[in-house]
Design goal:
Layout (H helix, E strand, L loop, with lengths): L1 H25 L1 H27 L10 H17 L11 H7 L34
């Protein structure tokens, strides 16, 4: 089906280009005014469609307000989870002793080894003596 449509489309485009060139040479003033009127009409139609339908859709042209709320909530949670520790201001020694909690109240923090790292066994006893070559 596409094979017979391609020559027809090229023929129609060629005739359109020929007609535009012919109108530009023979009747320039009316051609230019009709082009300006068509562009103005297209801008008015696009503006009306934009203000009636597309403006209230949200950011990015897609998605609704509920999805934007969910996205903003996820961003907020992510920032809270991965926020950087704030730098502390140095205080005097008296203030430090009063603020410190007892060592018994602290829970020991469990260290977990990184899952992507592994120990490679090797000959650790052999040291290279770089001075004797």
């Amino acid at each position: 089906m596409r094979n017979w449509m391609t020559p027809i489309m090229y023929t129609l485009m060629g005739l359109a280009v020929f007609y535009v060139g012919f109108q530009l040479i023979t009747n320039t003033s009316s051609f230019l005014t009709s082009i300006v009127i068509m562009i103005g009409f297209a801008v008015l139609v696009y503006g009306a469609i934009y203000f009636l339908f597309l403006r209230n859709r949200g950011f990015g042209g897609g998605g609704n307000k509920n999805e934007m709320k969910k996205y903003k909530q996820a961003v907020k949670q992510s920032k809270q989870k991965y926020k950087q520790p704030t730098p502390t201001i140095k205080k005097s020694n008296i203030a430090k002793t009063a603020v410190k909690s007892s060592p018994l109240g602290r829970k020991p923090r469990k260290r977990s080894s990184a899952s992507h790292l592994r120990v490679i066994e090797g000959h650790k006893n052999k040291d290279k003596n770089r001075a004797s070559f």
